[in-house]
Automatic annotation (TrEMBL):
This is Pyruvate kinase. Its EC number is 2.7.1.40. NCBIfam families: pyruv_kin. Keywords: ATP-binding, Glycolysis, Kinase, Magnesium, Metal-binding, Nucleotide-binding, Pyruvate, Transferase. Residues 87-415 form the Pyruvate kinase barrel domain. Its cofactor is K(+); Mg(2+). The keyword Iron does not apply. It comes from Eucalyptus grandis (Flooded gum). GO terms for molecular function: ATP binding; kinase activity; magnesium ion binding; potassium ion binding; pyruvate kinase activity. Oligomer of alpha and beta subunits. PROSITE patterns: PYRUVATE_KINASE.
Amino acid sequence: MAVAGELTVPCGQISSKIPTFDFKSHISGVPMIYCSGGKLKSRISTGVRAVLQVGVEAAQSVGKVEGALGFDVVSEEELREKGFLGMRKTKLVCTIGPACSSLEDLERLALGGMNVARLNMCHNSRKWHLDVIRKIKKLNEEKGFCVSVMIDTEGSQIHVVDHGAPSSVKVEEGSFWLFTTKKFEGSRPFTVQANHSGFSEGIEVGDELVIDGGMASFEVIEKIGNDLKCKCTDSGLFLPCAKFSFWRDGKLVERNYKLPTLSRKDWADINFGIAEGVDFIAMSFVNDADAVRNLKDYISTKSSISIRVLAKIESLESLQKLGEIVEASDGLMIARGDLGVEIPLEQIPAVQEEITYVCRQMNKPVIVASQLLESMVEFPTPTRAEVADVSEAVRQYADALMLSGESAIGSHGQKALSVLRMASNRMETWSRQENRQSMLHHRKLGVSLPDRIAEQICDCAAEMANNLGVDAIFVYTKHGQMASLLSRNRPCSPIFAFTNDRSTRMALNLQWGVIPLFVDLTDDMEANIVKSIDLMKAEGLVREGDAVLVVSDITPTAARSTAFQSIQVKTIS
């Protein structure tokens, strides 16, 4: 295909230096850029120091189209109904539990916009989890969905106490309770079982014991060997397997148990997940980068497919080592419930924003989790404050939002998912209309020259897409790297990622604004571009006059290829 022309435009020099990120630095305002969302403008304004091929040309059909377009049914319907700019960009994660584990319920969640199904290995049997995984894969294969599977490890239970009752217990102010390390079956009146023998080490009379970040509070009034006698100072609900923390003079009592991040049960669950081909493994209670690296190394020796490892940020220690944990992991989950047990509650909003910012700087997807719509576990509508909380996470450009108990055990899981979807769509639309789409002064990630070139291309492609008002961005990718780099820029246009690697497709389900499609690709990029556009035209998904921006990270074998390491803008004809 003929190229309309070439453009050389200057920008900042490509540098191999990677500056360190200051976690404590102030999050300042960012410049706004204009997203027209309309017809392709004649002025091209971008910032690349390189000769990049910018072909503004008509995409012509080449005859009969062979092959299939691997579009999931939900995204396809959304595109038909709302158009390119109406497509939701924030991804949705649902925790699967007894309330939504039937095939019919899982299908309803998939139709409602669930991108990732999370299985919490703390609950239910391995047989139960296997059944759910196979149901999800059945829906993907037979109904055309694209739902990824995540398992979430239980982690060390040293921070857990249990009263033994099957449901929550009301704790009255002034009542006396014994927290013991002795093991017993069932429940005993006013007695709570601690999982770790060192439960009371370093604890003093007068310390405050807080349950689940404030659901109930106790004062330590006596130490009896390894046990603690406590008096309830704030009444509330005591849930089964509750998290606890100790506070002294308004500060968290820090204790280092020096136990491994992954227990024997966790390793068995991980092997189960590898055998079943899950897409993500979320690690609980990660306190350093070594634990993440060790798990990734282990997976690479055991699995023939790529399984992404997510680190859960839920402790003060993980916050103190945030930079190295983000760098080592494939993404993060902000477990606000558990994190709120270890830091003052008024710090949670700022910490959430900083973690989200760091992840975007380092090009790692981030999930905001815990208590997003907690009231919907019981009630059919959320509080207005909960909707505001969801909208704020979307405004911060978190990659994904997660339902926990709302979907797993709640009576209104479908409605909760619908609230996430509607709130996300509305906030994304408002941000675009108010020209709030922001370009970061990105931390430079690439070390090798090809990586730095790819990074520059994606930064400039996203800026061009916004300035030109193209309808969509098409990226052809083997491992998803350029799709991820484009997503980091949070462009107005949706990113259609064409890949011939199934694990890449499922991993991209967690990336903001990316719609992954499984297609057969060759090393002839011009042929790939023509074929994919023709397939979308045949399905009526693109129309005459639509403008798409095209990039690729698939290395051609033919030296004559002009599509590799280029930016092309094509109008559909």
